[in-house]
From TrEMBL:
Full protein name: Guanyl-specific ribonuclease Sa
One Pfam family hit: Ribonuclease
Family annotation (CDD domains): RNase_Sa
Enzyme Commission number(s) from the entry: 3.1.27.3
GO molecular function: hydrolase activity; RNA binding; RNA endonuclease activity
Gene3D superfamilies the UniProt entry points to: Microbial ribonucleases
Gene from which this protein is expressed: rnaSA
Record's signal peptide: none
Keyword annotations: Hydrolase, Nuclease
Amino acid sequence: MRDRLRWRWLAWAAIVWLSLSWALLAWARGPLPDDATVALSQLPREAQLVWQRIRQGGPFPYEKDGTVFFNRERLLPPAKRGYYREYTVPTPGLNHRGARRIVCGGWTPTEPDACYYTADHYASFRRIVP
């Protein structure tokens, strides 16, 4: 019984420690710098096609495309839940979703206020400039 309680306490402590570490890391990195932009023409061809599909309303090959992005990393400007949506940018040669994404903010998915590109699974973002 004592061992079980000890393990539960250790698991709880680890979860709290990891959550705090993650929050501190996000806070230390800070929000997206104002100069973190990329021209649409400089993105990989796959990203350009996804950007076009977003504006056309699809079709999207992945089930997660168009779902709510929660901005847990807090690298994008703060917004209410549901403002951001994520889309997969395929990586040639991979048989899974990979790390590349476009995240768009706005209340009308086909007319986003701003879109951001990440090649490293949300560790960094650059605002897409059409």
